[in-house]
Amino acid sequence: MRPYIICHMMASLDGRIDCEMTEQIDDTNLYYEALAQLGCPSTLEGKTTLAMHYAQTGEFQQQRPHEDAGQQLYKAVEAASYAIGVDTRGTLLWDDNTTEIFGRPLLMILSEQASQEYLDYLKSKHISYITTGCNGIDLPSAMETLRAVFSIERLAVVGGGNINGSMLDLDLIDEVSMMYGYGIDGRGGMAAAFDGRPMDRKPVRLTFKSVEEQDGIVWMRYQVVNS
């Protein structure tokens, strides 16, 4: 069993989700107020978002020969909620107190190809981790571990487009919560709310749940019709 998963995003009217751009549309207070209403104290973000806003500059440099970590689990602390990140091979660098940065403990999901040395590094920073999947991260397995070991029952996926698209492809998104600001991006190459799905994929069906408008921001919620 996995958590109930909601993808919650703020986008321009053309569906782009670059944070620096959407912050120019709105101060994002409404976004976080809506997130609180969704009842998902734990959130998940992709590597690009983490590198842009939270991690230190640069990448982890190995000092020892690479040794695949294999399937592992480390729970640094028991908590009511976690900030969850995805870093397939383990390259992000972190401050000593990530709990202060995120406002709750950090939990990283990696593939089994991440190095043992990098896991030792995370442990030295008191960062929890899950490694699963030989060829990339096994996201369904990771979601089950979040529920079984970390007691996460509701999870909000809050960026970016590629992790959203991957989880949608794997039928891991139960609900889509989209907030559209009063602006258009239009820049070439910018990520959409859901991105990177293979060209042979069919559109994902949704059923309407609700719509609200506040101060020019439109908030729409849809249930995903999983196959």
From TrEMBL:
Under InterPro entries, the record lists: DHFR-like_dom_sf, RibDG_C, Riboflavin_Biosynth_HTPR
Query: Part of which pathway?
Result: Cofactor biosynthesis; riboflavin biosynthesis
**Domain Bacterial bifunctional deaminase-reductase C-terminal stretches:** 3-213
| UniProt keyword NADP present | yes
Highest taxon of source: Bacteria
Keyword Cell membrane listed: no
PANTHER family for the chain: 2,5-DIAMINO-6-RIBOSYLAMINO-4(3H)-PYRIMIDINONE 5'-PHOSPHATE REDUCTASE, DIHYDROFOLATE REDUCTASE FAMILY PROTEIN (AFU_ORTHOLOGUE AFUA_8G06820)
User: What name appears for this protein in its UniProt entry?
Assistant: Bacterial bifunctional deaminase-reductase C-terminal domain-containing protein
Q: What organism is listed for this UniProt entry?
A: Segatella bryantii
